[in-house]
Specification:
13 strands; single chain; 276 residues; 5-stranded mixed beta sheet; alpha/beta
Length: 276
């Protein structure tokens, strides 16, 4: 009798496991193709960049992607893609996913689904030589640069309205740049008083140039970073979310973030389209 019960219990467990695996299985099109085309733009350390010695891809997203690839049993073929072409690359099936530090926003959710895997936010910084800039409100009335391709210009303007203009202080002048490297160059040339980047990038930049930059205040807003998948491919989103949850549960996810000193940006579980 006990043997029958044990056999039944094991059968039920196998059935549940098989159902779970089937629920989060990769789409047949991916299986047939034999790989996942992953869009990446390696110019955003430490999330995505190339090792200056080997010229090989590295960073948080690369490490997470390679671990997902191993668990999903399918190769990730990295395709360097201009950031502004990533969403169209998904919708036209040129790439299957975007794993390149992309912010999940309600606007982007209209055409792309996001598996959110990291929490961050835009943050002020400036040169150490700017002794008069000590708090975030010291940027009121100043020129602050940030990449025009990101959501940061809007976030700075919103923060300025609430923390500068609403208190009778002059507004921040937001200067759109060609990227974070361009913002830093303009900062050095004294064309900007300060700049804004994702909080996840600033410790790395400071470590590369000790004593040059200082971070001012905390993140202006909380944002979720998501792995992008075409809305027409919900099976792939589900498979990736389940894989990420397994990595969180067994601690592999946290080890990858710790490698890059980004434990503060960890999430407790994967969620799809978490930005509201």
């Amino acid at each position: 009798m006990k043997l029958i019960a044990l056999t039944a219990a094991l059968s039920a467990l196998v059935s549940v496991s098989a159902f779970a695996a089937q629920t989060h299985a990769l789409p047949q099109a991916i299986k047939d193709k034999g790989f996942i085309a992953a869009g990446i733009m390696p110019n955003y350390p430490p999330m995505d960049f190339k090792d200056p010695v080997t010229n090989q891809l590295t960073g948080v997203d690369y490490d997470l992607g390679m671990e997902m690839s191993k668990r999903l049993g399918v190769e990730f073929r990295w395709q360097e893609t201009a950031f502004e072409q990533m969403v169209s690359g998904l919708t036209t099936n040129r790439i299957d996913i975007v794993l390149s530090g992309m912010t999940d926003t309600p606007e982007r959710q209209k055409t792309v689904d996001f598996v959110d895997y990291f929490s961050t936010g835009p943050q002020f910084y400036t040169l150490q030589t700017q002794k008069d800039l000590k708090t975030a409100t010291d940027f009121c009335g100043k020129k602050v640069g940030t990449s025009r391709r990101t959501t940061f210009p809007v976030e700075i303007a919103k923060w300025s309205a609430q923390n500068c203009e609403a208190k009778g202080l002059p507004a921040i002048t937001v200067v759109g740049t060609e990227g974070s490297a361009d913002a830093r160059a303009q900062l050095r040339q004294a064309r900007l008083d300060g700049a804004v980047q994702g909080s996840e990038t600033l410790p790395y930049i400071q470590s590369q140039e000790p004593g040059v930059f200082k971070v001012i205040g905390g993140p202006l807003a909380r944002q979720l970073t998501g792995l992008g998948v075409a809305k027409s491919n919900p099976e792939l989103s589900a498979a990736i979310a389940a894989t990420l949850d397994a990595m969180i549960e067994d601690g592999t996810y946290q080890k990858i973030l710790k490698k890059w000193d980004l434990e503060d940006g960890s999430v407790d579980a994967a969620q799809i389209n978490g930005a509201k």
